[in-house]
Design brief:
The protein is of the alpha/beta class. It contains 13 helices and 16 strands. The chain has two domains: 110 residues, Rossmann fold (3-Layer(aba) Sandwich); 225 residues, Nucleotidyltransferase, domain 5 (2-Layer Sandwich), CATH 3.30.420.240. It is 36% helix and 21% strand. The strands form three sheets. Strands 8, 9, 10, 11, 12, 13 and 14 form a seven-stranded mixed beta sheet that branches. Strands 2-3-4-1-5-6 form a six-stranded mixed beta sheet. A three-stranded antiparallel beta sheet has the order 7-15-16. A hairpin with a 3-residue loop joins strand 15 and strand 16. Helix 9 runs parallel beside helix 10 and helix 11 crosses helix 13.
Length: 414
């Protein structure tokens, strides 16, 4: 607003880029308009064509930096701004936006929070830090959550709660609040997180009276109408398994800040090469009659859709189908990391079983990949095996999230 008012008589364009036009660029327009109204300069400014804010002869132009947007041909005279730069493709900025300031040698400012080491924000940060070392002129300005909290006590309390909920090692806390850049890919769990996942409680084959249980079911994606019946054992290369994870839900660990309960994995079952119709009856018996689970999150993607629907008919609202998309897989991954990082998810003590060994093999082999828009994918490289036990763990955390605190007493009848 200050720049536009200063150049209202002389003229010139200010260009601002955001990852999307709706809602991010529109939000910037609304904020600018709000400041102009507060400044009582009515009659001097106007919004034109939905993306231009004009103040006298000066203009602010707001564009999307999405890969598909068409924005070439503009010139930035007063300022070139890039908002949420960590989410803007570097090649898009270099091709379409950087040239806008070439003729005027315009001042360029990028805003954002840390994400992957190959993001646009991190690339420009590295360049600026190198220039600072050469000439001593400051170009990089960093304000993590502590700098903001020193001036805003409400924000301080909010971030403290996020630290307890996510844990300091969680990718979202490290990037959004601590401003630590992460590698584009690597192991999903750190050594410390793997140590936290290991519990000391014993595996159980049946429920304890008065305890509450939830389950996560990852459904094998192989043929559903044929196959040899196998239970447990070492999974065959190239053959997926259906994995059921049962966890005890301890609501006493939740509080007003962190409302998620503690999860103790107490049982795991897996089936390889079992047709879904033959598996259905055993699953209903385990979930309803044996464990009486409060909630089961079921992989309803592809082949899992039919089995999930049949289970829902038998068990009703206890079944929560989960269709995997890049968005849902990212949310489940972050949720799983938070549960492990804060010590809310524990695997039973080693019993030497094939299930325990396979779970830890997948935990050790799990990879996390940072994606644009603060998303993450997680998997086990198919060349190293499967991720069915890993996904089942993520689904049991999802089932716990869907179990409200007010139902913490007792267990529904089988």
């Amino acid at each position: 607003m200050l720049l536009l008012c200063l150049f209202a008589g002389r003229g010139g364009d200010l260009v601002k880029a955001a990852p999307t036009f709706v809602p991010q660029a529109q939000t910037s327009i609304r904020r600018l308009v709000s400041r102009l109204r507060e400044a009582s300069v009515e009659g001097l400014w106007a919004v034109e064509q939905g993306y231009i804010v004009r103040v006298g002869r000066a203009r602010g132009l707001f564009f999307s930096a999405d890969r598909s947007s068409h924005v070439v041909g503009q010139t930035a005279h007063l300022l070139l701004e890039v908002d949420e730069a960590q989410d803007i493709p570097p090649e898009k900025f270099d091709r379409d936006f950087r040239p806008m300031g070439a003729a005027t040698n315009v001042t360029t400012v990028l805003y954002g929070t840390a994400w992957s080491s190959d993001s646009l924000l991190e690339q420009v940060k590295a360049q600026n830090m190198e220039l600072e070392r050469r000439d001593g002129v400051r170009r990089h300005f960093r304000f993590d959550w502590r700098a903001v909290a020193a001036h805003n006590s409400l924000y301080a309390r909010y971030v403290e709660a996020e630290r307890q909920r996510l844990g300091e090692g969680h990718p979202l806390f490290r990037t959004q609040y601590a401003l630590e850049s992460l590698g584009g890919s690597g192991g999903l769990f750190s050594p410390g997180q793997r140590a936290q996942l290991q519990g000391a409680h014993l595996r159980r084959r049946s429920p304890e009276p008065g305890k509450t249980y939830v389950a996560g079911l990852d459904v094998a994606g192989g043929p559903v109408g044929s196959g040899e019946l196998e239970w447990g054992g070492t999974p065959e290369r190239g053959r997926d398994s259906t994995v059921l994870t049962i966890a005890e839900v301890d609501f006493s660990a939740a509080d007003e800040v962190v409302r998620e309960p503690r999860l103790l994995v107490v049982e795991q079952r897996w089936w390889t090469g079992v047709p879904h119709p033959r598996l259905y009856g055993e699953l209903v018996d385990l979930l309803k009659k044996v464990w009486g689970v409060r909630r089961v999150a079921v992989d309803a993607t592809g082949m899992g859709e039919g089995l999930s629907a049949f289970l829902a008919r038998a068990l009703g609202s206890v079944v929560h189908p989960v269709t995997f998309t890049p968005q849902t897989k990212s949310r489940l991954g972050f949720q799983l990391l938070a549960a492990v990082e804060t010590g809310r998810l524990k695997l039973y003590a080693s019993d030497g079983s094939a299930e325990w060994q396979e779970t830890w093999r997948q935990v050790d082999a799990a990879e996390g990949h940072l994606l644009p828009d603060r998303r993450m994918s997680f998997e086990v490289d198919p060349r190293r095996g499967h991720d069915d036990f890993l996904v089942s763990l993520a689904l049991v955390a999802e089932a716990a999230r869907l179990s409200p605190l007010r139902q913490a007493r007792g267990r529904p009848p089988p």
